[in-house]
Amino acid sequence: MATFETTRPALGLFGGRLSTLVVSLVAAVAAWNDARVTRNALSKLSDRELDDIGLCRGDIEAISAGTR
């Protein structure tokens, strides 16, 4: 049976921290963009359409932020 190693070697003092920072930054930008796209899509709906899905204009910000 063949085996392989799934761990990565340490990249020095700042390598691991730097990659963690970059990954966190990319995730934050992706989350911000998802919220922006959601907010824009919901804002384009009419009041009637929002009511059909059980929302009102005041709910848009909470929905896009993921708090509701």
From TrEMBL:
Pfam families: YjiS-like. Residues 25-61 form the YjiS-like domain. Keywords: Membrane, Transmembrane, Transmembrane helix. The chain crosses the membrane at residues 12-32. InterPro entries: YjiS-like. This is Uncharacterized conserved protein YjiS, DUF1127 family. It comes from Gemmobacter megaterium.
